[in-house]
Amino acid sequence: ISGLPYSSIDFLLPQVGDYVLFGTYIIQLYTPLNWFGTYYRLIQSAFVDMENMLALLAEQKEVKRSSDESFELAVILTDAVFCLCVCVCSTEVLRDVTFTVEAGQTVALVGPSGSGKSSILRLLFRFYDPQSGWIHIDGQDISKVRQSSLRSYIGVVPQDTVLFNDTIGNNIRYSRVTAADQEVERAAMAADIHARILELPQGYDTEVGERGLKLSGGEKQRVAIARTILKEPQIILLDEATSSLDTQTERNIQASLAKVCANRTTIVVIYRSGCVMLC
Asked: Which residues form the ABC transporter domain (predicted)?
C-alpha cells in the first residue's frame, strides 16, 4: 500500500455507501430468519389447536338422537309430568324423584347448592338423559321428540348469563331474531331494564363487550329475563334468576315475572325460601 499513490489508498478505504450497502445486506438476511422463528411458533400453535380439535371431534354425544325421534312436540299444556330416577355422569345426583307440575302452575325447587336443582332443569332441556326414569310433557316422552321442538317451548333464565359482543338490543333479540324493535323495548320494560338502556350513550345500539363485561351482573341478568319474555315460551325455567339483583330491583322483576308467568308452567330454582314470591 505504501507504494501506491495517495488517490489509490483513498479509494481502498470504506466509504459511506459501503456501510449502507453492508447494512442493507444484513437486514435482508436477518429479516427472513426472524420470520422463520415466527412461522415456526405459529405452526407449533396450530398443531396444538389441531390436537384439541381432533380430541373434541372424538368426544361421544351424551344425548344421541334415536331412530324414533321423528315427530314434533305438541304442547296443549294439560300437564307436565316429571317422574325421575336419575344418575348423572356416573355420580348419583338424584334418586327416586317424582313430581307433577300442572299446566299454568308455578313450582319452586328449594335446596342447598349441589342438591340437584339445576340438574332437573338440564334434564328437562335434555342436555343429558336420565339413566333411568322418564320425563313427560303433556303426555309425551321428551326422549321421543325432536330436541329443537322441545326447546322451542321452553324459556330459561340462567344464573350465569352469557352475552355476545354485540349491541344490547341484539342480545335481547337473540331469543327471537325476527322480533321488531317495539317488541324488544316492551320485553326490556317488563324486565325493568328499559330505563337503564336509555341512559346509555347509544341506547339499544350500545355494545356490551365480550361476554357483557360492560354491564353489571344485575344488568346482564335482566337482559336474560328480557330474552325469555321476548321468546314468550309456554314453559319457563328460572334458575336463581334474581340472585345478582338488589332488593328493590328483585321485587320489581318478580312482579314482572309474576305477570309473564301467568298461565304458563313455571319451575323456579332458588337456594333460600325467602325468595319464593312467584309461588
From this structure: 75-278
